Amino acid sequence: TYKCVASSGDREAEATVNLKIYQKITFTNVPSPQEFTEGDNAIIVCDVISSPPPTVLWKYKGAKIQFEKDVRFRTLNNNHLQIQGIRKTDDGVYTCEGRIKARGEVDFRSIKVVVNVLPTIRIRQAETNATADMGFSTLLACDADGFPEPMVAWARNNVPLESGDKYSFNEDGSEMTILDVTKLDEGDYTCIAKNKAGESEQELSLKVFVQPKITYLESQTTTEMDEQVTLTCEATGDPTPTITWSVGTRVFTEGEQASWTRPEQHKSPDGDVLVRSDARVSSLTLKYAQYTDAGEYLCTARNAIGETAQPVYLEVRYAPKILGSVTVYTWEGNPANISCEVLAHPSDVSITWQRDGFQLPNANTSNIKIYNTPSASYLEVNAESQSDFGNYNCSASNEIGTESKEFIVIPADVPSAPSITQVQPYSSTAQVLFEEPESTGGVPVLKYRAEWRAVGRGKGVQRVYEVKDGLSSVTVTGLKPETDYEVKMSAINGKGEGDSSQSVVFKTEHVREPSPPILEGTLQPKGNSLKVKWTKQDDGGSPITHYLVRYKAVNSDWKPEIHLPNVSEYVMLIGLEWDTEYDVFVVAENQQGKSKPGTLTFRTSSEPAATTGNHHPSLPPPLLPSLLLCVHPRRRLLHSSVPSALSVIAAFALIDQDVSKEPIVEVRTEEEATANHDAEGHPEPNETTPLTEPEQVTETAATVLDLPLSVPTNSDTVTDTFDLSQSSPVSESTTLTSSITAPPSDPPNPFHMTPPNSSTPKSHTKPSISSTPSPDPANVTLLVDLGDSPEPQAEVPPVVPSEEPVPVPPSPHSVVQPDVVSSKVTENELESPEKILDEKSTTELKNVMPGTGAEPNTLTQTNATESKA
């Protein structure tokens, strides 16, 4: 209060003035930012003074806080704002506003409130598995959340882990890699996350498995028939491994393997082997070990992580064991080897031979020789008389003991007769099934001889078959349809030829249509080309005139039918659609009709990425719709082949406009003579019998060629495989080697030979009906009755319209067409290996004695225990 006094003379006056000074709104303590931990009861400080005291209002994000709506918020007496259980969502900018209504004064301060969140840890995998001692690393990871972003650290047994040779961490420390894990790394690890709000931690477990490891294994030595010997194997690993013993393919344990908490004993059926497993140790005990028990034994330890195996060796020392059969068969003049093969350990063995108490050789045994090796001794006895047959003694000794064995040399005999069990006739061939002789004479059967002839005729044919792969059937060939034949067989060993079997009579079938050919497809390297090869089957007794080939993509129309000569052996389909399934039919036709089709289904490869079209790599696009007909320059096509070839050309001339999609068909013709169905030596083919064995041409008009498509040359040895499942007289599982010669039975038809220098096909000249063979019946060989003479044929026009010649595969042989057969038989013909039999020639090769044509050197035989030194 202020007083004002005024005086004038004796007069005085005064007045009182009350002065009030009001303080403006002043914020004395308003810190920003203010930080709190989530969940705390937070008090936001805002100290404000004024005169008169101000009214304080609180705002959040510019809006007045409605205390009645959220009871967590309230204003304290000192105007501070309290938030009970503050949340992360409560952080932000708060406004502390002071007001003096009487003066209309307003002032405020903004306060940034930060709510820190305690870290939380998320474990990706509470327990991690790892394998020790494999050089592997394993990863432990924990993801920490919180505000501010927490830092992650790792510890084990309260010891912090640092980055180094053993541990490495990623940038925020959430991932720890343990390098080169070992069993010592197994245990618990702690993940620790820290920030301003505090610290959290979580434990992770590492389980380390260990592959089995064999820690102890020792080889043993024993002497045969000792009481027992034990092999021991120890192994470690986690999980604890089980241990098994084996030798070769034999496993000594049976049933469930031994558990380490429940040891088991496993005993072999014979009681000589005992297996015991306990506490990571397994033992294998052999009682009264024999020499056959010696060798490598395998100890195998395995658990869920893996397995390991190590060999251990059992050495058995034993006296010599003499092996082999005691009987040896031979005949006078034929050297025989007696093999005294010895097993012994130690292998330092002394071997001696004796006979009748006298050591061999001696002064009285000039026909005996001995050959020694470290493990065997061979006694060669050249039996000169009956006295050389009998007993011979072999003795072998080492430091363990001695063993002797008597060997007996027995005179060999010729084999007994085989037994013909069945004859399966066909039109021009027959399959003869037989059983082996009951007695081989002591030495192996080397060959079988088959003799056959038409019933009521004095002459016949014979063929000798080499024994290979369990020969149980042979094929007789060159038969006439609907004719009665008789066949018999004999066996031949080194001693000679045995008696013949009883003759079996059979009748060939009538002429019929061929059996379906067997197809074999080979996808070519390009992927959209296929080589379709066929194997001729039974021709039904009538020559196959041609083949018919059809093919199509599945769900598409058939391509034009292709007529191919009877000498064709395959078709090459080129430029097919990619990744497409195709059907191929091949039909053989003779004068009796068509066979059922041989079928083949295949799929082309997927189109390569670099391929832009279906053009053949070696041909320009205009030449794609072409037929490649390969014919030997000196080979004349049959009269039935020309129109077939022309029809192929015509079929491919009528091709679509889009020639790039039309496949090329390449046809190969086989260079063989036309089948002569009255000729001898006509084996029946099956799916494994090739048709590519052409006859070698002898440049003389007198040479008689009478081989069908699949007949080997008379001078060669061939292997025929036959299949009883086909309509063919031969079996697939029978492999034989045969040598055949043709008999001079009836006068032959003459044939014209194609000139050797001819380079283009020539037309045939039809033989005159009045032409007759040589009147000399003794020199005439009737091989075939050609009912249909070939007609003249026109020259085949060029197939591919190009200046470049059509590629023709080189011919392995030059073959002539047997249209006309010479009426003269040369001396060379009569030397053919197939014998023409008459009544005086049926005793050949029987009772052959050494040195009189049997060739002892080539006929010397030994059984399974014989071997020549």
From TrEMBL:
InterPro entries: Cell_Adh-Cytoskel_Orgn, FN3_dom, FN3_sf, Ig-like_dom, Ig-like_dom_sf, Ig-like_fold, Ig_I-set, Ig_sub
Domain Fibronectin type-III, chain residue ranges per copy: 414-511, 513-608
Membrane topology category: Single-pass type I membrane protein
Domain Ig-like: start-end pairs: 25-112, 119-205, 212-315, 320-408
Location (main, coarse): membrane
Polar residues: bias regions: 601-615, 711-742, 755-773, 855-869
One example GO MF annotation: axon guidance receptor activity
PROSITE patterns assigned to the protein according to its UniProt record, in alphabetical order: FN3 (PS50853), IG_LIKE (PS50835)
A GO biological process held by the record: synapse organization
UniProt cross-references to SUPFAM superfamilies, sorted A to Z: Fibronectin type III (SSF49265), Immunoglobulin (SSF48726)
GO annotation, cellular component aspect: axon; neuronal cell body; plasma membrane
Regions of compositional bias (Pro residues) in chain numbering: 798-812
Subcellular location: Cell membrane
Biased composition (Basic and acidic residues): 671-685, 832-843
Positions with biased composition (Low complexity): 686-695, 813-823
Keyword Transport recorded: no
Keywords noted in UniProt: Cell adhesion, Cell membrane, Disulfide bond, Glycoprotein, Immunoglobulin domain, Membrane, Repeat, Signal, Transmembrane, Transmembrane helix
UniProt key word Cell membrane: yes
CDD domains: FN3 (cd00063)
Span list, region Disordered: 594-619, 671-869
Protein name (Swiss-Prot/TrEMBL): Neural cell adhesion molecule 1-like
The organism of origin for this protein: Sinocyclocheilus rhinocerous
Gene, per the UniProt record: LOC107713449
